[in-house]
Automatic annotation (TrEMBL):
Originating species: Tautonia sociabilis
Protein name: Neutral/alkaline non-lysosomal ceramidase N-terminal domain-containing protein
Signal sequence, renumbered to the chain: 1-23
Sequence ranges assigned to domain Neutral/alkaline non-lysosomal ceramidase N-terminal in this UniProt record: 46-260
Keywords annotated in UniProt: Signal
Pfam families with a match to the protein in the record: Ceramidase_alk
């Protein structure tokens, strides 16, 4: 278990003395905020293998609209800063994330618990690093392009962070919550009958239709930035053209409505949620407009001011896998006619041949920002909706819950989903190259870790 916050590594501690001192005195903040925003296009310049679907058989064929990385720096009236970078990407792996965040910490003086890399999880984006790498039948040229793109992206994000810090201005910070209704629990409903079931009031399963909004305005009321979320897969589209899916269309719409602003999307706990119906550009645009309208209504309506100062915490929780199968199991799977199954097994056999053991646990990132009275939780992986519903039920309405943050290593099922099995509970681990499903204490471990980080960020430890 690696903990950041009150137990920072020495390098990060030296870089962040002022920020840590502020966290120890949360009552000192008077509510004055500065913010810096910046954005950069990250659409690949060459055809690349696209992320998210095992059914793809060829690289990208064009661009529907550009992919973006967008940075937001927040600074309280004591000078403590935090950085959020939103990414129009399906996912990033641990190695990439740690490398980028540590370089930002080193170059720009931010502690790791103040840096978040948040993926929208659009399935019309390029493969990055080793994320979901078991899934893709790439040739050597495509693997080289992924490696080159990943290296360039890492440098770009570090520079983007610096640009946002140079753009700091005084802002009024406020938050609110809207609603959007297109997310459907995909485990509980026939996606081909979504409209029919909705008309009959017959949709089943838990959903989270909240649209959390963080709004940044100047003293004259000009909107300079909006951060918003939604708990739903970005899987409206399956075409081989780069796009941000519905979230990308929503950001385009918001930046048209607020021409001086940068709009950032941060995905919620939508691992078991799909936009339904789906599979057309018209539907992606429709959902994007619906989401943007929810944000605009919230910005125009009652927003609550964010008063106080910035506090934060981070922990890597050891999540256990179920018992790992023996070598004979992997030898049998290596002969499978299913590409991803055989690919995973062969990679494990190579590790065993080198004398390495397969991992029994995984370091899972849990992060918290407290912006005055607003609690913002960032979870790694593809988190199912049970988590956001549970967390907000207990912490109340002044809580944002985001996932796909810092490391997208696997699906994160609740105990209910794990016991039910299926894709989110078990078989998706094949595509992520993990050695099996999580142990049954996965939800307990994450909630216990979150509670530790919440207490630490509140100055109770």
């Amino acid at each position: 278990m690696r903990v950041f916050g009150r137990s920072l590594p020495m390098l990060v501690l030296l870089l962040a003395t002022a920020a840590t001192a502020t966290a120890a005195n949360p009552a000192s903040g008077k509510g004055g905020w500065k913010a810096g925003l910046a954005k950069v296009v990250i659409t690949p310049e060459r055809p690349m293998w696209m992320a998210g679907y095992a059914s793809r058989t060829s690289p990208s064929e064009g661009t529907l609209h550009d992919l973006w990385a967008k940075a937001l720096v927040l600074q309280d009236d004591q000078g403590s800063r935090s950085l959020l970078i939103s990414l129009d990407l399906c996912g990033i792996d641990r190695e990439f994330s740690i490398g980028v965040r540590e370089e930002i910490a080193h170059r720009h003086g931010l502690p790791l618990d103040r840096i978040v890399l948040a993926c929208s999880h659009t399935h019309t984006s390029p493969v990055v690093g080793s994320n979901l790498i078991t899934m893709y039948p790439m040739d050597d040229e495509q693997r080289h392009r992924v490696a080159s793109y990943t290296e360039i992206l890492a440098r770009t994000l570090v520079e983007l962070a610096g640009e946002a810090m140079r753009n700091l201005i005084d802002v009024h910070l406020s938050h609110g919550q809207g609603k959007a209704g297109f997310a459907v629990n995909r485990r509980e409903n026939d996606q081909n009958r979504a409209d029919e079931l909705r008309a009959e009031l017959a949709l089943k399963g838990p959903v989270d239709h909240d649209v959390p909004v963080l709004c940044l305005k100047t003293s004259d009321g000009t909107v300079k930035g909006v951060v918003f979320g939604y708990a739903c897969h970005c899987t409206t589209l399956a075409l081989n053209h780069f796009s941000g899916d519905y979230a990308g269309f929503a950001m385009i719409e918001l930046e048209k409505a607020y021409p001086d602003a940068v709009a950032l999307f941060v995905a919620g706990c939508g691992a078991d949620q799909n936009p339904l119906p789906r599979r057309t550009v018209e539907l992606a645009e429709k959902y994007g407009h619906e989401l943007a309208d929810a944000v605009k209504r919230t910005v125009k309506g009652h927003l609550r001011p964010v008063l106080g100062c910035l506090r934060s915490g981070y922990e890597e929780v050891d999540l256990a896998f179920a018992p790992i199968p023996d070598r004979a199991h992997w030898e049998a799977e290596a002969a499978s006619d299913q590409f991803a199954v055989a690919n995973r097994a062969k990679s494990f056999l190579e590790r065993l041949d080198r004398g390495e053991s397969l991992p029994e646990t995984y370091p899972y990132p849990v992060q918290v920002w407290r912006l005055g009275g607003l609690t913002w939780i960032f979870l790694g992986g593809e988190v199912v909706v049970d988590y956001s519903l549970r967390i907000k039920r207990n912490l109340g309405p002044d809580t944002f819950v985001s996932s796909y943050c810092n490391d997208v290593m696997a699906y994160i099922p609740s105990l209910r989903v794990l016991q039910e099995g299926g894709y989110e509970g078990a078989t998706a681990m094949i595509y992520y190259g993990q050695p099996g499903p999580w142990a049954e204490d996965v939800e307990d471990r994450i909630i216990a870790g979150l509670n530790r980080v919440l207490r630490a960020s509140a100055g109770q430890e």
